[in-house]
Amino acid sequence: MRPFAYERPDDAAGAVATVTADPDAVFLAGGTNLVDHLRLGLATPGTLVDVTGLTSTEITDLPDGSLRVGAGVRNADLAADERVRTRYPALAQALLAGASGQLRNMATTGGNLLQRTRCVYFQDLTTPCNKRAPGSGCSALDGWARHHAVLGATHEPAGVACVATHPSDMAVALVALDAQVRVLGTDGERTVPIGDLHRLPGDDPSRDTVLAHGELITAVDLPPSPIAAHSTYRKVRDRASYAFALVSVAAALDVADDGTIRDARVALGGVAHRPWRATATEQSLVGAPATEDTFRAAARAELVDARPVESPRGGTAFKLPLVTATLLATLRDLTARTAATTTREDPA
Amino acid sequence: MTTASRPFVPRATGRPMTRPEGPQKVRGTAPYTVETPGTDALYLSPVQAGVARGRVTAIDTSAAEALDGVVAVLTHEDAPRLAREADADHGVLQSATIHQHGQYLAAVLATSSETAREAASLVTVDVVEEPHAAVLDEDSPEVYAPAALVVGATDDTRGDPETALADAEVVLRATYRTPMEHHQAMEPHATVARWEGERLVVHEATQAVSWTRQALAAAFGLEESSIEVISQHVGGGFGSKGGTHPNTVLTALAARVVPGRSVRYALTRQQTFDLVGYRPATVQHVALGADRDGRLTAITHDVVTQGSRIGEFVEPAAAFSRGMYAAEARRTTHRVVPLDIGAPTFMRAPGEAPGSFAGESAMDELAIELGIDPVELRVRNEPEVDPETGLPFSSRNLVACLRRGAERFGWAERDPAPRARLVDGWWHGTGVAAASFPVVRFPGSEATIRAVGGRDGDGDGPVGYAVEIAAAEIGQGARAALTAIAADALDVPVERIDLRIGDTAFGAAGPAGGSAGTTSWGATIVEAAERFRDKYGDDPDDGDEADASTPDNPWASDYAMHAYGAHFVEVAVHADTGEIRVPRMLGVFAAGRIVNPLTARSQFLGGMTWGLSAALHEESVLDDRFGHVVNRDLAGYHVATNADVGAVEVEWLDENDPYVNPMGTKGIGEIGIVGVAAAIANAAHHATGVRVRSLPITLDAFL
Ligand SMILES: Cc1cc2nc3c(=O)[nH]c(=O)nc-3n(C[C@H](O)[C@H](O)[C@H](O)COP(=O)(O)OP(=O)(O)OC[C@H]3O[C@@H](n4cnc5c(N)ncnc54)[C@H](O)[C@@H]3O)c2cc1C
Ligand code: SF4
To answer: CA-to-CA distance for A156 and A154, rounded, in angstroms?
Structure first.
């Protein structure tokens, strides 16, 4: 751990100016990810710029029917908000499926979006990792890659390979809900569609997002959407609570009385370097009858280009059937719910 | 040898008693080791090896030394010499050789822990890497037969098992695998060490102050009398705080260069995956031969385990099969693959925990093969005498546990067909497994009883008794249990006992280990009380004192002594995703007299919970390319959560065993874990028809 300065500017613009001017400065929000990285020696900033209190901690209704979530809103508060629970249930469920009560009390909306991968080699300074030490190689490719990608990863060349996944549950729900991220830079504010915020590794796995150094997330807007009220989040993981997703699905369906799917929103977690909008699945669903066959075909459509990590020490081949199974379980469940029949319960 | 002649009348013993130190713990005022006030204290932070094997060619400490607040940086080049260079594991900073990833290469002492950490990150080490081996490959040419197990022989063969298998009407052969696992106590290992001239005072998070003292005496070439080890509260040990690990030697070694000052070192969570032991992975080949009626004719259980070149501990997994069931012919063997990794050690129910996964899964597979109910199969193979020693049992109530468990669980209604109960999208199944754990008594504890107050004392009240024994309170409830035992042995109410533990000033003592703490320390206290009452009667003078050391058990060579248990579990597996939940667990135990029902329930429950963890989650992922565990924190190394399980029910049978010791105790710390993983694997098979022979059982098995 390296000594650092701690600063608390007067306002968001001041924070942006400070960090933009200093390549060695970073924003600090709840600290639940960043402070771990300081301890691990993974992040070695010279200055921490505390932004808690500088971005809004309010959830407000906008005139156009959107809901604006301040970047400083804690995950626990966002999950508990009545408007979120009724208008965007997938978001509330995703938040509650993440981390633990204590962590959710600290974690902020902005920090959650920008948390970094949990790839064990990324977090371990003694092993090669292209994301942490560009050009050093990717230890996960032949390593313990249970939590790694099947979609959109870079497998070669060796010097830029990265098969890491983005760990956030919240972000997966936001992607399915078409959220807009408001970002403040030295040139003013801009809006980034959530689906464009996170990057695929491409040839530079060191960069997680499209944000420039010093750009501050100020809020996340949830657009009005009738289908969102029928959304759900299903997280499959190695233990029933307090574990990152192996695969997760955020989905919403609009099924007509005759059983035809009128509209669909689907995003996947645990499968890629960013929360994955399953556009092929959505296209395949819309206009088709809400049946098992349709759901299977929709999963197949998304996985056409999938490439699991084939590691002798535990790869991700199992995620291909798991994505299909989780999509199937989620879509079947949603269909049954829209048809107002009984829901399934976890027996534990 | 003497034995108690007064009958031990349980008055306090057997009644629920809260922990005397409970209020302190709840308020956060019970001092754990790292919180011990020090003298002019310094903080230690180590530099660790990033390769599994090689040599240090140069260390540059100048940048670290230049930092404000850094008092010293020790390396193998300048660290004080130890007496025991031979033992590589304890030979900390004694040579340039690297034996394992994570090995200590240097240590920084600084006035704050942050400075110590930063300085450690500034030390640069040049290393020549050498090829290493870190995969458990049972076909490795280096596989060897260890000289012996901690208890018992490496191999044991009765009759002619291969011929018996060849002749058997039904044969079940299967290979089971269990992973490397780490203890992960809440409290990380911690040491506070100070030298006063040639005297060393160590506060240590340990399960055995005496063992720590012995190890340090050997490492530093000192008389044990020059060392005092103190340990008042320990936040869990589970075996990893039984033996002494390099961190303790390192702290004492570093303290040597700053005489009179305390040096404090608590491991980071990541470091607890490197140097303080683990349960080694096993590959277990089991064969069972039986006749059509389910009577076993042959049992073979051959184990290969992960080993370390710098410290031998053999996971005695096959020993489980030496005494469970009757069979004329039997073979149990242990082999070790030596690797360039840290040394393994005892972990809760060493041997029994992984061994029972193999043995009790195999019994289930055989029951299915034979079409016999798995409870009934076990009952049919109940031995009349101990198969290992030929001795009669002091008491053995396995069948009673199975029967009682079956009744409470509703086993009679069970349809044996696998993959037959789909409820709301989840396949349900039930499973059973048996458990056993030996009754252990460690020799060599010393107890002193002294009257306080009384006729010549200052107090007006009745006489009180100071009872001193260097026992360990590791959260298991030793203070409560020993207070109750001392009260009954002296025939006074518990309020009159002042129990003092956790300090080598009170003499030698066995460990909190082997489920033997209550038995070993309790028998010693009973013996001391006996002597005290013989000498002074029940109305002693202030300062009257008697002591005793652990008596031998006069029945030790006449009876085989074990605790037993039976686990019944229900498992649900999601039909689509393979997610696994355990809606119900029931453990029924026959483990002698239960001294304190409150803390005993916690022990059984904790053991069962750990069994659940081992079944579904626990696995230290050793990346053999680097030689270290890569899921090295509690976000990566999973233990069970409440959400994994529904009801966890614990029951014990009244058991009166006159042969084990005066209190009638058998030890309950470990048996709770034994068999749980097998019961869950058996239930998962019943639920889905899929047999998982490798732990942990994860959802990919069912996709
Ligand atoms: C044990 C454990 C388990 C967890 N399990 C889960 C889980 O199951 N699912 C899940 O989704 N998450 C999980 N998490 C992660 C948790 O959700 C994140 O750590 C948390 O959301 C981060 O928020 P924070 O406010 O604490 O961010 P910080 O740690 O303060 O910051 C994280 C990053 O974001 C940057 N940052 C923060 N705010 C802004 C802003 N407004 N604009 C620009 N940059 C910003 C920081 O500079 C930093 O780089 C877990 C974490 C832990 C420790
Ligand atoms: S997957 Fe990405 S983060 Fe993980 S080791 Fe490879 S490059 Fe690093």
So the answer is: 6
